[in-house]
Queue: 4 jobs
Job 1
Amino acid sequence: MIYQKFKKFVEAEKLFSPRSRLLVAVSGGQDSVALVHLLVELKKKDWPQLQIALAHFNHELRKSADEDELFVRNLAEELGLKLFTGRANVKEFAERKHLNLEEAARLKRYEFLRKAASKFEADYILTAHTMTDQAETVLMKVFRGTGLEGLQGIRLKAENIVRPLLCLERQELEDYLRENHFGFRQDETNEDERFFRNKIRLKLIPFLQKEFDPAITAHLAEAALIAQGENEALSQTVEKIWPRVTRGGSSHLELNLGKLEKMPPGLARRLVRKYLKAAFGLESPTFHQTQAVLTLQDGQKFSWGRSQVLVREAGWLRKVEKTKRQKTFSLSWDGQSPLRLSSGLEFVARFISVKKLPPARRLSGLEFDDAKRCYLDASKVTLPLEVRNRRPGDKYQPLGLRGEKKIKESLRERKIPQVERDVLPVFLSAGKIVWVPGLPISEEFKVTRSTDKILLIEKQTSAN
């Protein structure tokens, strides 16, 4: 008996309780009408405290749309149930938002259902998706390319939206309605084979049932339920790992691809998918997009659209932000007062007498850190220094090297992020580059054992 099968499924999956307040989405078609009658039967026979209200949304897409709405109004009145109605010009909305009709209808319908649920103070919104719908959806996902998330098909429970008919095939519901002489509306578009879903339902599934497996619908639906359970377990694992492989806030979120390389591929792909959603709002990245991101090498970029660009640097994946081109600047600095740049960086300078340092510490005691400070032989430096932005073709002889090297190449080798490279100043003495924060000083200006006085240039910690 269909009613017992329905009740057992609701209880086994704990879809809602005997005291729940339910808002049922009703189009007037056989599936949603069957759901209403099954719920009313459940309330009368077993769960008297169940609260039920109906909701109908008129998409204004079919000539018979107003007749469907009238049918649902009469159904609600006949059963003594509260009814919420809404309507919208879905075609106009789709054109304005550049959406296909199906997606536009779904967005407007669920927008209405959530508002109606709030008014009714419903615990759950019930939709009439069936086992047949589930089989169709899984096949559609397979044909379009999918992974475990796609194989879930229609979720049995997603937030407060519940689909209690996923245990029943459409034919079972049709038999139930006819046996009990319950009327329903026919949607003529369900027979239009120009729609992909209809073609699968009307041609492919009957062919599979006849030639391969009479129970193909049930088996596909079962596979979807299994995928939902396993996907939930994987999602929980991802949530636990997420804080250990990411850093930065929502606007500057970075993902540690170096750690992902040591994980099982399925888990790594899921983390990349989560990152792409968090960083760009991409709901369904393709397998090839995910793989392309995972195989990036340091310095390589991946993009799909001008505003959607990723780069891997020092093992971390981050968005390439659109930055305003730095204005050309050139300042003269004598080192006597702090140097404050428009980028927010601040530097101070002071002279150190080598004679005042303990002999054992005259060189070894200096705290070297190319990113924060530099030590120069003061006798080789001509003040005032010129401080300017990096220019194309800039090159110098880094400490310890015999020849010159482009600053651009040195910054890349040091794996300094692009966003930092663009604001780093260049310090020059008499036209010669002496230091760029993050890089070694120039060989020509290094401190030696014969140095008497050191010029220390230091980045202020507060400016970091």
Job 2
Amino acid sequence: MMSSRERTLRAFGKIAGLPDRVPFQFDLCRSLTEEFGRRLSIAPEYAISYYEDLTYRISANAIRTALGSDCIVVGGTVPSSYAPTPVDDGVTINEFGMWMKPTELYMEVVKCPLADVESEDALNAYSMPDPFSPGRFDAARRDIDRFGKDYFVIGDVELSLFELAWHLVGLEKYLIDLSMEESWIEKLNDRVEEWTTSLALQLVSLGVDAIWLGEDLGTQTSMLISPDMWRERFKPRYARLIARLKQANPNLLVAFHSDGAVAPLLDDFIELGVDIYNPVQPNVPGSDPQKLMDNYGGRIFFFGGIDQQALLPSGDAAAIKREVSDRARIMGKKGGYLMAPAHIIQADVLPETVISLRDAVLALAKNE
């Protein structure tokens, strides 16, 4: 029987031959993690990310692999000696100085540490966290040692550039000052690029198979910034980052994540050396699976594609099975596809629906 690691490496062309079925990956919110932990008698292991909403990307690998994931996801955490600063009403201050408030689904940034910055001098007074703090990769090292021989290992550094920068400033102010070409913006972007590069290179040194870069650049209908602005202000930064990663490990696969309608950037991603595009969000312009394969198949791999907004919350097992079969037939017939929901599976999805999704994937025949 083909191992999960071999299956995924075959899908991404790192081992010759086709996988026996499309490989599968998924993330679970906390309530689903806890529920499946009870069902499987596996205590959830939470790796607390430096940015709270990434925690469920990099946690509970034992539960996910027991449920059928072919991949594990690891990443940087808070340092071993770190604890967030409590404020009130559940609000805490994280390493970056962001005030974080828990909501039903996410942790929301309610106060940004650089909300009032207007100059390079003010920016210079701000200290970024140390990416090399002790303990930041203890959980990643543990899970790679435990699962790395049998499972494909993804190192997560999402919120790579644009999104981490605007979380430090606030979206409206960041976009205005970016458009006005305020000089301090590029200095901030330099520091964010250095942070992300340092994290990613440490993950590469631990032996991950892929680095998962990215940020949400799109809405349901368009991009948050114009493609031309992204090409001018962020593409050169990604070029440097990806070049450094592939210099450190020429066999490394680079995945790029962006929710929303970002199809106008796919040629740019390919030019940068991005190997895998995620999450292939359904129901936005430019994400039709057949058109993606016609235009980009053989030039970039795909990761994601299963509808998280309507299909999975509906719980319709027959519709899920059809969607899995269609995605595998269109996008995975010749390899090149890692099937996954287009988002972390949230609490509006029943545990039985997760099982239905898993069962539909595991039932796929070779080359279906």
Job 3
Amino acid sequence: MAEAVSTFLIERSIPKELVIFLISMMPFLELRGGLVAAALLDIKFIEAFVICFVGNIIPVPFILLFIRKIFHILKKTKTLSGPITRLEERSMKKGAKVKRWRDWGLLFFVAIPFPGTGGWTGALIAALLDIRIKRSLPIIAVGILIAGIIMSVITYFVPHIFGF
């Protein structure tokens, strides 16, 4: 698998570092997917960690600042009104514990690498709950850092223990 991906990238002259950076910026994949890809592409741990962290954190301030306005505009269209409303509802449902535990809830929500958690969703929840950017951005950044540590152990260190 890793060989096929490497061959695909080499044939197209796409730097591996750019690939993991872009993966880390994508919702649902984020830093977690970027670190897995980095391990498969044999990118050194420290380099991969920094690239994936930066890639994951870049969209967060924009989400915190603009997502409510963007959602408001998109809800005015027939085709996007339903999906946006469902996304808001699903995010608020996930955000129930964040609302209850506020800062700690947001931190753990972003930090624990489960599907549907992470910086993107954490920023969306923080924006929908009106948690100010001065407060939410550092919490989300620390959550991404913790998720990165957890995923680094899983993708870089555990496989070496078992000889992979």
Job 4
Amino acid sequence: MTLVRAADAAAIEDAAARLARGEPVVFPTETVYGIGADAANRDAVAAVYRIKQRPSGHPLIVHVLDGASAQRWAEWSRRAQRLTEAFWPGPLTLILKRAPDAPAWACGQESTIGLRAPAHPVARALLHAFARHGGAGIAAPSANRFGRISPTRAEHVVEDLGEDAPLILDGGPCEVGVESTIVDLSRGRPVLLRPGGIPVSQLAAVLGEQVLERDAHAPRVSGTLDSHYAPLTPVEMVDADEVPGRVAQLRAEGRRVALWARSVPTSIADVGFAMARDARTTAHELYDTLRRLDRSGCDRIVIERVPRTPEWRAVGDRLRRAAAAGR
């Protein structure tokens, strides 16, 4: 039976002890809930891959307390120092050259490693407690089946993983709601690999240089497959002026339609949810809403395309990948 515990001091200590014994646990971060294990324990990391049904070549992110503890895992740099001083703890993952003695099993055998210092108080308390047990980092992807909708509430984890879920620390809904920004610092110039909670403009301002776009030689990192974050129900992204016609067409074909829209009345569909007008609120509500749409019993999910502006980039990225699964 899945054990869900309010994330008080006793539960956090229990979770840290489990990590030290090589068991996985689920914990909240400010972005999404993660299923984590001792990053230095090969068998523990393998259990995370197995529960998540994640391909072994798809790297995890190692969660650490701060820049000092990150240097146990990676070759440090001036750029890394600047970014961690500005944005850690927070929703920023750095891709760095893996230290020679750092284990490769959490990295998909890549020569690089992803590192992040989460800001959520439960995640930080867990890292502190794990350190008292001798732990140096927690390798943790999102706590859902591979490729499916990320969890931002404890009940989402239970919904996805069922009896396979280990101990879940319930810290309430995640504040940010989309995964971390990922920046590659392993190849000389900073490169954005995944948009997230920290805009590129802020990264560039701190670094004093342009952050380049992803290229064909980028290392493999978490959450960047073309199809990802996907409901079981097929998803379509549709421009606002085309939504009414597309919904009408699908319903004329005998399909039940679930709609999530900002500027179109949702009453035109069988099931409808209104999208927030601002990107931050939409990001916070994104995965919970996708799950509600998926549970609606409809045959197709239609989502009004979000603005192509910097503040909407992370939401647009996740929706594009969610829709790719239905093509």
